[in-house]
Amino acid sequence: MRRVTPRLVRRKIVFNGRIFRIERDRVTLPDGRPATMDVVRHRGSVVLVPQPRPGHVILIRQYRYAISRWIWELPAGSLEPGEAPARAARRECAEEIGLVPRRLRRLGVFYPTPGFCDERMIFFRCSDLARPARPVAGDEDEQIEPRTMSIASAWRLVARGKIIDMKTVLGLVLIESVRP
User: Fold this and answer.
1) Count of the separate structural domains present in the chain
2) H-run or E-run covering 123
3) 22: containing domain
């Protein structure tokens, strides 16, 4: 059976920011009805699961302005325009935890909110971590506290509601289900 998709009639850029843009599309649905679709367009991001040794993970604690609270999460960051995901993973790892992975393993690609956003999150296991040749500056709007903990401790934080970030929970599932 052939699936018919909506037909774009017109597109308006409502917002164009540093990390994403918002488009308002007027479309014709397959059954002929008109509809308006608001879509957040994002370059994509990398999510890092840094493992300094087996059974352990490095999480970061940082303030998330959108939810007005400090949270524990896996390091992550947006792709720069034209940047390869593996390169972004190495860059973000150095910026957020001060270590560079000598080994990367792609764990999967997931869409966190496909109902309104096209962001693709590419998950990487980062291992064989080393100090970078020279110090790397992080983003000026971030205050980050990295901490190494056992994976069991991270799961306890999930159970106690201290880890509330979905990408972090998925990253923990992935490292337990995908062999090194």
Assistant:
1) 2
2) strand 121-130
3) 7-42
In a domain, 160, yes or no: yes
Note down pLDDT in tens along the chain; length 180 residues: 677 899 999 999 999 999 999 999 999 999 999 999 999 999 999 999 999 999 999 999 999 999 999 999 999 999 999 999 999 999 999 999 999 999 999 999 999 999 999 999 999 999 999 988 776 665 666 688 999 999 999 999 999 999 999 999 999 999 998 776
Query: By the 8 A CB rule, do 45 and 76 touch?
Result: yes
Q: Are residues 12 and 70 in the same domain?
A: no
145 and 170 together in one domain: yes
- Could you tell me the CA-to-CA distances from 47 to 5, 13, 98 in Å, in that order? 31, 28, 15
The structure's pTM equals 0.91
